[in-house]
């Protein structure tokens, strides 16, 4: 059985889980108690995996921590790793995303923040530089704040070309750079903006999450504020693929690490309740790029269930077969060792789960 690290960020700290020989999960923590952990990166590009954590302290403010020994010790730089330049007259509120780039850029890590900005590290996340071009984009002044705030919450990089970067902004939409972040273009054609008079604007959509296909990096999947979409041309245009789902609203979307056309969502209702449809705890999987969707619920609670899954609280590891994991606002984390066909409760009674990341470390 693969040795998997399961990292769970919650409203009150980070919990780290390892699966034992009996297939059960042993969790330790909390690390960073009383700090909200909204972002986790597990950088497996190095000999020893590096953990990166974006934690918010109500007293000390937000910071980025790193560990090179699987959480036994943590390092926080003496000066903030992510900091807005003084001329922006802006302060960091939260780090929403920590994304190790692909093999084309082995030491590059991106940080997406609230307020909506992008930072880039070239030393594995020890220090970051401000990507001024996105901040100074002429459309940024018209980005609005979603319910969770105004933020760059998703970063996707092309494994073939380090200069191709895609970000999602709530609420600004999808933006792409083909020149390493020197310039940015909105990429929202076909994505609806249901809460605005103009249904298909150039920008301003409330994109909740983007994920990249394993076999074709030009194929992207998008969970919108109403609507699930796919792009086959790296985001130039999008098509709806939500038919067959009990709701097309949700926060998260994730893809299989090796199998093309395989993606996972956790639908929730679009009304003010934001609950699983019919109060049933179900992950939905497509194996044909969104042509059809199948519910996955074996081992999940069957009684009325109220746990919603946030945008970064569903993920897959890189095992074979792939493990699938999700955490909810009930403080439960569920794990599947067979790509979602069956599930078991990994841990419960945690604080509100904000993000989940997993990787094979053995």
From TrEMBL:
UniProt cross-references to InterPro entries, sorted A to Z: WD40/YVTN_repeat-like_dom_sf, Xyloglucanase_GH74
Fetch the CDD domains from UniProt.
Sialidase_non-viral
- SUPFAM superfamilies, A to Z: Oligoxyloglucan reducing end-specific cellobiohydrolase
Which Gene3D superfamilies does the annotation name? YVTN repeat-like/Quinoprotein amine dehydrogenase (2.130.10.10)
Which PANTHER family does the entry mention? EXO-ALPHA-SIALIDASE (PTHR43739:SF5), XYLOGLUCANASE (EUROFUNG) (PTHR43739)
Protein's UniProt name: WD40/YVTN/BNR-like repeat-containing protein
Native species: Streptomyces fildesensis
Q: What is the lineage of its organism?
A: Bacteria, Bacillati, Actinomycetota, Actinomycetes, Kitasatosporales
């Amino acid at each position: 059985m693969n040795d998997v690290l399961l990292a769970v960020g919650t409203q009150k700290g980070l919990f780290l889980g390892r699966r034992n020989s009996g297939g059960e999960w042993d969790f330790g923590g909390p690390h960073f108690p009383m700090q909200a952990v909204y972002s986790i990166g597990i950088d497996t590009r190095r000999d020893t995996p590096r953990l990166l954590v974006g934690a918010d302290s109500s007293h000390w403010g937000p910071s980025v921590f790193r560990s090179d020994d699987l959480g036994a010790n943590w390092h926080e730089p003496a000066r903030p790793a992510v900091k807005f330049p003084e001329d922006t007259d802006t302060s960091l509120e939260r780090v929403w995303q920590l994304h190790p780039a692909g093999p084309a850029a082995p030491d590059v890590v991106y940080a997406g923040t609230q307020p909506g900005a992008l930072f880039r590290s070239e030393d594995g996340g020890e220090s970051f530089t401000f990507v001024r071009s996105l901040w100074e984009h002429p459309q940024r002044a018209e980005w609005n704040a979603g319910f969770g705030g105004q933020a760059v919450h998703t970063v996707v990089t092309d494994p073939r070309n380090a200069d191709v970067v895609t970000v999602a902004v709530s609420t600004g939409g999808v933006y792409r750079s083909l020149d390493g972040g020197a310039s940015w273009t909105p990429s929202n054609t076909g994505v609806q903006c249901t809460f605005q008079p103009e249904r298909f604007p150039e920008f301003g959509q409330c994109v909740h999450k983007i994920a990249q296909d394993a076999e074709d990096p030009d194929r992207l999947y998008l969970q919108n504020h109403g609507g699930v979409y796919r792009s086959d041309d790296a985001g130039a245009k999008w098509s709806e693929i939500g038919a067959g789902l009990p709701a097309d609203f949700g926060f998260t979307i994730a893809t299989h690490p090796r199998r093309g056309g395989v993606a996972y969502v956790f639908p929730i209702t679009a009304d003010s309740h934001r609950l699983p449809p019919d109060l049933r705890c179900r992950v939905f999987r497509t194996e044909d790029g969104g042509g059809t969707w199948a519910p996955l619920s074996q081992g999940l609670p069957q009684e009325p269930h109220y746990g919603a899954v946030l945008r970064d609280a569903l993920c897959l590891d890189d095992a074979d077969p792939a493990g699938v994991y999700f955490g909810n606002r009930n403080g439960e984390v569920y794990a599947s060792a067979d790509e979602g066909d069956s599930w078991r409760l990994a841990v419960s009674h945690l604080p509100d789960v904000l993000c989940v990341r997993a990787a094979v470390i053995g």
